[in-house]
Amino acid sequence: MSKGCCVPARAHDGAAQDTAPLAAADGAPEGARLLRLAGGEFSMGNDGADAVLGDGEGPARRVRVSPFSIAACTVTNREFAQFVRATRYVTDAERYGSSFVFYLQLPAAERLRARQVVPGLPWWLPVDFASWQRPAGPGTHIRDRPGHPVVHVSWNDCMAYCAWAGVRLASEAEWEFAARGGLEGRTFAWGDELERDGAPRCNVWRGDFPHAPAAGWQPGPVEAAALEPNGHGLYNTCGNVWEWCADWFSPMYHRETPAHDPQGLHPTGRRSMRGGSFLCHDSYCNRYRVAARSSNTPESSASHIGFRVAAWCAKA
Prior knowledge:
Elements: E1 34-37, E2 40-44, E3 61-65, E4 68-71, H1 77-87, H2 92-96, E5 98-102, H3 108-113, E6 124-128, H4 155-165, E7 168-169, H5 172-180, E8 195-196, E9 199-200, E10 207-208, E11 212-213, E12 242-248, H6 253-256, E13 271-274, E14 294-296, E15 305-307, E16 309-311
Parallel strand pairs: 12-15
Antiparallel strand pairs: 1-4, 2-3, 4-16, 5-6, 7-16, 8-9, 10-11, 12-13, 13-14
């Protein structure tokens, strides 16, 4: 199994959220924009040398997805705040009283106070009171970043939001189809080169991971609609924040699921995530490629995990 730099996990404690549906919103949340995609057949997965061992990126195969709609951007702090105001929902991170924060997002004094309980991953710190409203713990707040992706949301939290908003999470197949932007067999959403004329095309780690960020770059998400969209109009499908998908995760995904609208339906204890985050770097974790896969427990949250919503056939 590849090194898990990007996915600190919270162990399941049996204290699951109440899964009763919440009252649906009157229309989509303000700012939400769904793009209707016609679906079709595409080459899903990756057999290349850059595939992460043990993640089940391949074998690459032809897959067909039915028409669906998907959000141009990940859910933002502004949109999630609407949900919380309407429902008084309490996230998993708030119930547990802590969430994982990348250490360079914290002031130096806070790094010293934080507990280190993630074996082998010293850059992840469980920070008391870190949550979607306080993305780097006490002293930080979302009021100055309303258009940034909401983070510190578990898979359970995403499902609650979707039930309220009348949407759903995309399957892995839908996500990859949309993330590719119509490009077959390419590494990224725009092609095979990470940069264009020396300029980054996505928000992934710049510098030497994990201790030396490049001058002028700070580890953390950029706005959900930052940088250029792909060919389907989706923003930040490579890097920025991990995006939860509907599937149960299995390394045997491409061997076990059908070729038409595949989805991991067998419970495995972990849910799929796609897209990578601002912490990805090819020297350690190159999962910001469109075929790359990862996973986490449904209760887990961190400062680089968010989500994007989809719908069966919502209007564009």
